[in-house]
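Record 1 of the preview.
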Amino acid sequence: MARRVEKDALGEVDIPAQAYYGITTQRVIRDFTISGLKLQPKFLEAYIILKRSCALANVKLGRLERRLSEAIVKAADEVLSGKMRDQFPVDVFQMGAGTAFNMNCNEVLANRANEILGSEKGKYVPVHPNDHVNMSQSTNDTFPAAIRLAILLTLKDIEGEMQALEKSLKRKGKEFGGVVKSGRTHLQDAVPLTLGQEFTAYGVAVGKRRAELLRAGESCREIGIGGSAVGTGLNTPLGYRDEVVAELNRATGLNLRLAEDLMEAMQSQTAVAEMSGALRDTALDLTRIANDLRLLASGPKTGLAEIRLPALAAGSSIMPGKVNPSMLEMLNMVCFQVIGNDVTVSMVVQAGQLELNVMMPVMTFDVLFSMNILTNAIRQTRIRCIDGIEANEDRCRHYAEATLGLATVLNPITGYCKASEVVKQALKEGKTLIEVIREKGILSEEEISRIMNPANMMSPETSVKRKTEKSSKERKKKGR
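->
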């Protein structure tokens, strides 16, 4: 392979002649081959958009020669179109703060800009990675700004999938609105409800988590670009920070705003922690819902079997005909990964010291990884599982009629203690509640048919009605 030699204050390094990256990146390839993981394409795009915006701001303010700015912008546009993506090989686990990644971007843009201007790669004339591509910038203000930009660019996808899942669950809520079943608390019999009420509640929970993600996204709209090395804005021209934000908004439409305090925006990465926390909360609710659905679908002969999930694949290499809740199991695993990622993000966010958090690369990877896998898992679970769920109405009706929770409606009529005796006798003698109620003469046949009907136990109004009926009964007895 043809090579070229580049030199800096630390010495000389051989680099592949055709590489667009330069000496800093080559040293990182040599020293930090740790995981094989790279920062996500969306983060690269965010960083290149930022570099592009900085070049436009610098030329507008008279700091950067127009022909150099145009070459940098053209090189950036090529990367954003998908070109040269193999020229960003820096491992996630790199030297602190993301300096390696920032310089990787600077070198690639500089070398491509020089090619556009008729110069050779590695000469850095007339465009230099530090002097021109990195003009008015530091890793310390560009990297945290790019994290927030990448989060917002990625948020569009997960927010859309969350909204679609919310709608899907609520549609199932309407579809199953008339399917009465037994409720369960502590995994024991409870009062009846409808399968539709359960699914609607799942949809509401997803909607709340979606709103939480959007609130976290609002915190990420505040960026500290222009803070330079420590937040003071050293080596940046007057008006630069506002101009970069304006250019970013023109490029993305994300309604970004300049941080109130540029030093705070560099020291504190709690906006990233807020997004990670919202993703964790989303994972907590999603894994709870997935576990509920797995329980409701358990069986089909020896479990609850109140719902049927779409059959996607053979579930066993040894048991013929076995079908598992595969999509929900996948969703569980994704949620566990997201929760684990949040632990890492929490640790690295608190690890900032004085004017900088040097742990930003792994923070970036984990929060974007969580967003990506949740987006994909939610989409596939909705399409391949939720939308195809069917109710087993016969099984639901059986449990609704058999649940000992039906005794709850006796409280206003007999009191809690006597209702408990009915339950105890039913369990001891292996009878249904209705059989015991009938034997004890607690209710007439007409009252049994009306009051003990699970379908009449779905709202507070029925409880009020029963209390009225009890009062009327007591008045008649007094009249006698």
